[in-house]
Structures are given as structure tokens and as C-alpha cells.
## 1
Amino acid sequence: MNIILLGPPGAGKGTQARRLVDERKMIQLSTGDMLREARTSGTEMGEKVAAVMDRGDLVTDDIVIGLIREKLEAGDAEGGYIFDGFPRTLAQADALGQLLTELNKTLDHVIEMQVDDEALVTRITGRATCANCGEVYHDATKPIPADGHCTNCNGTEFTRRADDTEEALRTRLLAYYKQTSPLIGYYYAKDALESIDGLKAMDEVAGAISRVLS
Ligand code: AP5
């Protein structure tokens, strides 16, 4: 089963993708994570995308499509793939469709996570991530444990993303509404879209996703 988690920054795509990885042995393909990894590797591409990401703009289609192509061609995921933060433009959606066809794979569900803008600001500005395993925390809803150890890997270092500021979030939201939200109509027309309430508590959102998948 291959699925897309679609939603604005802070909708909870990464949080829910990690749960699906644990529970269903799916593989998470997050273009945001791939680009952040490229930034730290010191490659030319990493340098090129760093400023774009920090501003909150979208990286060019050819770069992200190339990253996804590489992952899909590299191996097979028994439990299927979760596309997290990809596709984000109509060109990316078309490219994903072609890639899946080439590899004889299907796209089984596109899950739109609906969250209002006010909640997104709170979620994004309160986010922290374990530097070792990527577990996602939030100052109010899922605080870093008092002993300073990650619940998942026991790591002690936590990071905050450079683009998790109110200013960058405004640009990210604009990019979402201008470039990504047309995908809602695109997948609706293909009869692949299911929308869920991403404002609910994490467990309830996970339950809604589970119902879609089964
Ligand atoms: P990316 O890393 O994909 O970021 P994003 O889409 O902006 O999404 P986020 O990771 O910020 O949010 P999320 O939905 O995963 O929320 P999370 O689960 O962490 O992209 C970053 C940048 O890379 C882009 O701006 C762009 O420059 C570039 N990029 C990436 N992909 C690209 C592409 N395809 N094309 C072009 N450019 C691309 O949750 C957020 C917080 O809320 C956490 O603290 C969490 O604990 C909390 N939370 C989650 N769920 C709940 C809940 N139900 N209730 C309460 N709190 C919750």
C-alpha cells in the first residue's frame, strides 16, 4: 500500500508517518528530511537548497523529483511507502504518477489532513525534534521528558528547525495555498482523496488514518 499524507506545514504528517512506520512497517519518504540531510552533507545541492528552505519557499521540482526517484528505484518496501511532504506541486504529482506506473506500483490513498492556520502557528513554533532519531516533540502537547532523554532512543540532543519561525511559516503557508492545495482537487478528481480532521488529538488522528487504510 502506497499513500500520500497531504497537508500544510504542521498538520502532523511527520508525526503520523512515524507511527505508520512503527505499526505497519511502511517506509517514510519525507522530502523535507531528505533535503535537510542534503544540507548537512555539504554537497552543492545542499548549499543551493538551504536558503530556499529557511525562507519557507519550495525547492525546485527537478531536485525533489530526483530525490524521490532515487529512493523508489533503490529498493522495494514490503509495507509500502508513505509520501510525506511530496508531492507539493502539480508537476510533482504528475511525476509521481509516472514513476509509480514505471515501477508497476499503485497509489492507494491520498489523505488530506485538515488543520486551521491558527493551530499551525502554535504547533510549528513549539516543535522540537530529537537530533538522533527524529522523534517529534511539542512544548505543550508532547514535551521533551523532564529527564531530558528521548522516549524513543534515549538521545539527549534536541533541535529546532530554522524555518519554524512565524515569519518563515507565513511563506510556507502561502506556498501551500498557492502551489500545493491544488493537489486536493487533482486527487479528488482521481477519486483517491480522503480528508480527515487533523485538529484532533494525535491518537484520534491515527485512528482516522487507520480507518482509511483498512
Ligand atoms: P517539510 O519538512 O516537508 O515541512 P512541512 O511540510 O512544512 O511540514 P512539517 O514537517 O513542518 O509539519 P508536519 O505536517 O510534518 O507536522 P509534524 O508532524 O512535525 O518541508 C520543509 C521545507 O523543505 C519546505 O518548506 C520546502 O522548502 C522544502 N521541501 C520539502 N518537500 C518539498 C517538496 N516536495 N517540494 C519542494 N520543496 C520541498 O507536527 C508539527 C508539530 O505539531 C509537532 O510539534 C507535533 O508534536 C505537533 N502535533 C502533531 N500532531 C498533533 C496533533 N494531532 N495535536 C497536537 N499537536 C500535534
Note: Residues 7, 9-15, 31-32, 35, 52-53, 56-59, 64, 85-86, 88, 92, 123, 126-127, 136-138, 141-142, 163, 172, 201-202, 205 surround BIS(adenosine)-5'-pentaphosphate (CB under 6 Å).
## 2
Amino acid sequence: MAKLIVSDLDVKDKKVLVRVDFNVPIKDGVIGDDNRIVAALPTIKYIIENGGKAILLSHLGRVKTDDDKKELSLKPIAERLSELLAKPVTFVSENEGQKVEDAVNNMQDGDVVVLENTRFQDIDNDFGKRESKNDPKLGEYWASLGDMYVNDAFGTAHRSHASNVGIAEAMKKSGKPAAAGYLMEKEIKFLGDAVANPVHPFVTILGGAKVSDKIDVITNLIPKSDHILIGGGMAYTFLAAQGHDIGKSLFEPDKVDLAKQLLKDAAGKIVLPVDNVAATEFSNDAAREVVGDDIPDNMMGLDIGPKTVEKFKEILKDAKTVVWNGPMGAFEMSNFAEGTLEVGKSLAELTDATTIIGGGDSTAAAKQLGIAPKITHISTGGGASLQYLEGKELPGIACISDK
Ligand code: AMP
């Protein structure tokens, strides 16, 4: 069933509570990267340009003690938002109580209020972590501040917190709508719909350190994919399952049987590295050598090799839908980054395909390459995008009203 979207809402004169993802890197009050604030602008602008009042809620970092509060206040973020919107933004140094209610009641149409970090509710109270444990009273309280709710924070959609699920449930209980913001809409469209019903050929590319982190993704995507290209550290457990020597490469012995089973279930769809860039140490200074699919005893595979890159490219060139999660090697070290960068480039070259990147490392690689504008969708959530690719229902999406 299609979900209600912010653009379906008549926001005029309405108080709209919006859960945004302002969880930006911040140090001593200085924002390291404001991408997430910029990404929230379309939803906020829709509300204020259509005569609504936007009341913004977000978490920032993990708040364990009072000492964390100073570093994790949303005040600098509200200031940056005000610059980006080129209009005043009211920051309230609390997220519950009289100060909050006064600020909300004083709002005019088109105004923006930012409440303090939702995770300040995770300390100093009887319930325990009220935000992260989804205290229903907190969700009800926040819901009582507004006429409608919009969830635009995909990064926390795999969590059931008071500021996403709690508010949405309370809103719906009182007959008010809970909609998805524009960012969330995009995630649903690509990670949800495009992957559930892909245009074929559908190629899945998986990498990263461990098989154990990606088992559910592989299992979910085997039946849907035409090819599953596997690189990164996780490839070596698969190569070991096929009887290859993997030297000192990353290896999960307790996953060998599973890897064998997955290779069998995938019936030829899984494509493994045919050559590798190997070194004696996990170091950018270690001498690198291209070896085949058997790795010498004293070496470890740290990247896919050039023949593998060619093989992957050959398969990718006909793809109509591609999902990529996880690097093809230890790409943080320049000597072992080529496989990841080449895969990124071949995605960027596809002009007639839907290309989707999920996961922090592949996103970092796409940005490093400057190819981000050529990718159809780069997911904003790490854990959330992985769970979506696993075919799981995310609580932060499930709680949004159907159209
Ligand atoms: P993940 O978080 O599972 O996506 O894994 C990403 C991490 O896996 C990165 O930090 C990479 O350096 C690491 N990685 C990828 N391939 C290898 C490899 N062949 N050997 C060791 N580490 C790897």
C-alpha cells in the first residue's frame, strides 16, 4: 500500500511536527558536514512555503550523561538551518514543557521551531531511555503539539523510538495524519519499491568485511537478482567454501557451510573474484601483488584484481537495476581502493539503469569519486538501508499512514 507523503498534506495554518535527521558530525559546536541539514530542506520548505508551521525534532549523537548535553545541543544546527533558509529559526533549549508549548503557540504561519535533541530524554528519568525505548507518554506529548506529523528521518527508520514510531502512533490514534517527507519518499521508492520489483537484469553488488553482516541481504536478494557480484573481505569465506586457498585473508570459519549453501541456492548467480590484490600485511606500505583466486599462505586479499573488475564491468554494462552495498576491498588504503573505485565508475557510466547505493562505505567511495550526481539514489541510512535490503519492514516506515 502506498504511503502518505508530505505533498499530500494541506499544511496551511497547521502545526506540522517533522522528525528530521540532523545527526551531523559536530565538534565544539562546529558542524563538520551539513549535508543532512541541506537534505531536509525540501520537506521543511514545502511546509513553510505552503503556510504551515514547522516544528522540528531530531536526535544528535548518543546522550548518556548530562556532560554530553553541551556537545550535543541542536543549537548550532538551528543556526545553520536559519542561514540555509535565509530566515529566522527559533531554537528551544528543551523538548518538553512550558517553554516548548509557549514557543509552539507563538508560531505564525511559515515559522520554523527547532526543539532540543530528542535523546536528551534518554537520561535523568524514571522510565529509562524515554526516546530510544519509545516511552508512549513521550510520543503522545510530542504528538499533542501538532496537527500533523511528517517523518523524514530514514537513518532511524529501523528503530522504534518515541520521536518516530511513538509520535506517529499517537497522531493516528487521534485521527491525525502521519506522512513521509521527501527524503523518506525517495528511500521507499528506490530501496523499497525498485528493489522489490526490479527492472531486469538486476545486479546486486555486495562487499565489506563480513559475510555475517550481509547474510540476510544475500538471502533476500538471491531470488530477485540475476547476478550477485561479491567482493571485499566477505568474498574470501565464499572462496574458501569453494576449496580455494585464501592465505591470511579475512575468514569466518563458522560461515563456510552457509556460504556453500548460498552458492548452491543462488544456482550460478553468485560471481566471486577470479583474481585479487594481495599483500603480506594489512598496510598501505606493504608490497602489493596481483594473485589469482588462490592466495599464497603468507598473504591476504585486500582488493579485487583487474580481471575481476573486467568481469564485473561486463556484467554491469547490461544491467537495468543495480544495488551496491559495501566496498570491494580495504578501500581506505589507496593501494587497495581501485576495485571499489572502478565499480563506482561503472555504475556512474550506466545511463539507462536505476543505480542505488546503500551503506556508508560505498557512499563515501561514490563521493570520493565525484560520481554521486550520476547515481539514481544514494541512501542516507546505514543500518536502515541494510535492513531494508534484507526485506524487513522498518518500524519508522510501517508507522506512516497509508494513502
Ligand atoms: P562493512 O562495514 O561491512 O561494509 O565493511 C567495510 C570495511 O571492510 C572497510 O573498512 C574495509 O576496509 C573492510 N574491508 C573490505 N575488504 C576487505 C578485505 N579484503 N580485507 C580486510 N578488510 C576489508
Note: Residues 208-210, 213, 232-233, 250, 301-302, 326-327, 329-330, 332, 359, 361 surround adenosine monophosphate (CB under 6 Å).
## 3
Amino acid sequence: MKVIEKVSEMQKWSEAERCAGRRIALVPTMGFLHEGHLSLVREGKKSGDRVVVSLFVNPAQFAPGEDYGSYPRDLERDRLLLERERVDVLFHPPAEAMYPNGHQTHVEAGPLGRFLCGLSRPGHFRGVTTVVAKLFNIVRPHVAIFGLKDYQQFQIVRRMVADLHFDIEIIGHPIVREKDGLAMSSRNAYLDGRERGAARCLHRSLKKAALLVRQGEREAARIVSAVKEEIEREPLARVEYVSLCDPCSLEELEAVDGEALLALAVRIGKARLIDNTLLKA
Ligand code: AMP
């Protein structure tokens, strides 16, 4: 596996692969890899001839006071995991390469960036779209794989690709969970033993909502309050939002009719955890 830090070297590698007629798959990550990331890599192997994993903790998507400085990092472990998956390139640029002196241009997410996580993390999705657009221009992939755990991010990237005419296929990969249902996340490392136990309430609450819908409940307000109630039974958990919304526009729904996205963010200790599920009436 090649480890590339320089933007120009990454571009040169991709240009050569493209000229040789090979299809490049990109998996963007912030590192501290887990099975969720690795399943995206395996999806990448299926959809491309070459797989590039980018590892970049993007300062532009963290607000002041968020966990940019303390975000878990372990480059050596990540490198070994990716080597084992037979990844072709690990692209790991320093922040100065991605945001050189004088940098001032950003990609602004539209209304999709204002719902859900956008409410409590203003500027977050602008940071995401900006860095993803940069990665697309540097790696020049034919296909890029994103996890549906970050469902809003997936929809925003899809929108950006359509709006800015990137010639890139975007694949959404299902959420990978621990045995007890907790969605895998690098931020789960923030949880101590008790908090880790408490974090099971996220998945439990999603399952409760799915059961309610199966039993015939359609009213969004009642489903949302049942979900909040389930989370709030856990004393260590604080609900940031629970939203039942349209899976494409992310606008709040009054009733489940067809497909609806149930998305939530919960704080437990130092961790801010997100999860979601699609409900079908
Ligand atoms: P991150 O390193 O957290 O920025 O995540 C990098 C990519 O991995 C994003 O597309 C995430 O949606 C995806 N991802 C993270 N956790 C999971 C998971 N548990 N299941 C599926 N995809 C995931």
C-alpha cells in the first residue's frame, strides 16, 4: 500500500491509473478505523479496480469548542488495518496541504445542511462539502463510498455531486453495528464502561419506533415522543434531537406515509452519538 501525503503526488497517481483505464474508488474517512470503515473499503473493492482511502481529520467541519483537538487518532493502527484490506493508497495529507495559506474558497451546502445536525453544528456541512469537493479533485475517483450512518452527509454529498456536475458515482453503505446494536463510530472511544452500556438506548429507541410503525402508528409526534421517552429512561443520555423526516428533503413529517427517516443525536458523557433508520409504512 502506498502512503501519499502530497496533493500533487496523489493527483499524479490517479492520472496514471485513469490513463491505464482503471476505475478508482475513494473512501473518505477521519481515521481511527473500525469495522464500519472497513466495510466501506470492501464495498470500494467491489466497485473499483483501485481503492484509495483518505484519512484526514478535517478542521473545517469542527466548530470552536468541538472535539477537533481530542478526536481519536492512531495512524499506525489504521495503516495496518488498511494494508490487511489490500487498499492501494492511503492518502493522508497534512492540514496545511488541504488548507494552504490564503485559502478562502468554500462549498456551501444548501438547505439540506440546515436540518438535523446542521441545527446544532452550524458550519459543519460547509466544512464537509468543502473537504469532499477537494478530495474529489485530488483523488479524481470514479466512485466514492459513504456510510449511511451519516445519512445527512450522504444526501448532502449526493446533492453536491449533482449540483456541481462531479462525474462520480456515490454509493451509500448500510450502518455497521456492534453486537448490541450500537452503531460503530470512532467517537465510541470516548465512552467509559457505564456510558457504553447507556449508549445502547439509541438503537433500542429506533427499534421501538419501527415496532410502533409495524403496529400501525403513523403520527410523527407520537413516534418521536416514544423515541425520546426511551432514550430519556437512560439517565446518562441527553437527547439533542429526534426527527422524523422525508428521506430526500430531510423536512419534518407529520405522518409516516411510505418511507420516512428517523434520525437522532444523543449526548452521553463527552460523546455526541448519531444514529438513524428508515421506517416504512
Ligand atoms: P468518519 O471517519 O467518522 O468521518 O467516517 C468515514 C465514513 O465512514 C463516513 O462515510 C461514515 O458514514 C462511514 N461510517 C462511519 N461509521 C460507520 C458505520 N458504523 N457504518 C457504516 N459506515 C460508517
Note: The domain at 186-280 is CATH 3.30.1300.10 (Pantoate--beta-alanine Ligase; Chain: A,domain 2).
